Amino acid sequence: MLAAARRPVFRVAPHPAPAAGAQDRDVLHRRLSLSEDLTHFSAEGRARMVDVSAKPATARMAIASGVLRMQAATLARIHEGRVVKGNVLAVADVAAVMAAKRTPETIPMCHSLPLTGVEVAFTDVPADADGQPGVRACVAVNCFGPTGVEMEALCAVSAALLTIYDMCKAIDPEMRVEGIQLDEKHGGKHGVWRRSGGNA
After folding, report:
1. What sequence ranges are listed for the domain Molybdopterin cofactor biosynthesis C (MoaC) (predicted)?
2. What's the pTM?
3. Which of 60, 80, 117, 172 is most solvent-facing, going by the fewest CB within 10 Å?
4. Is there a binding annotation on residue 111?
């Protein structure tokens, strides 16, 4: 008979006791500084979902991109419609839209936002030093709300590339995802931001 598998034991580290006097003030200052720099942390250093109710709603847009490297023969089969699972880029397009809409279910501190548009584009990229060309996915996400849609765009790109991988992995398991990044964003108090030297 097979021996019963041992279950891993997870232990929760005890919360440190509060400091006293001057030490207590130093700890509080450090926590407040952390919460100001990283808004997803409370003054106590715990993760939180930021309250955006006081922020004005503005038109928001974010563009993200990423590349899936593969063999040249795999890329040719995608374009020629010779992948057994179906139209690869059409399915990846739908996957990107679905991922953008469901981002808060994947990223814990994301807000649920009423997206007004998701646009997906695929382009070929030339071969790298290893001789592998690729497909670049670029996704633009729009909304009118109190916070940005960067994570929605990034999740959409990731889902698109992973969908291509899933549909082609039987013929090319060495495909490689690379360079998933935010290229551009608009709206909010920071206005327009573009990645320097990027593809935006």
Report:
1. 49-188
2. 0.76
3. 80
4. yes
Domain boundaries, the chain: 58-189
- Spatial distance between the Cα atoms of 70 and 88, rounded to a whole number of angstroms: 14
Amino acid in position 79: H
Between 61 and 57, residue with greater pLDDT: 61
User: Has 152 been labeled as part of a binding site?
Assistant: yes
Active site residues: 166
CATH superfamily of 58-189: Molybdopterin cofactor biosynthesis C (MoaC) domain (3.30.70.640)
The answer to whether 110 is a known ligand-binding residue is: yes
Query: Which pair of structure tokens corresponds to residue 192?
Result: 């327009």
CA-wise closest residue to 160 among 186, 185, 134, 132:
134
What are 139-195's pLDDT values in tens digits? 999 999 989 999 999 999 999 999 999 999 999 999 999 999 999 999 988 889 999
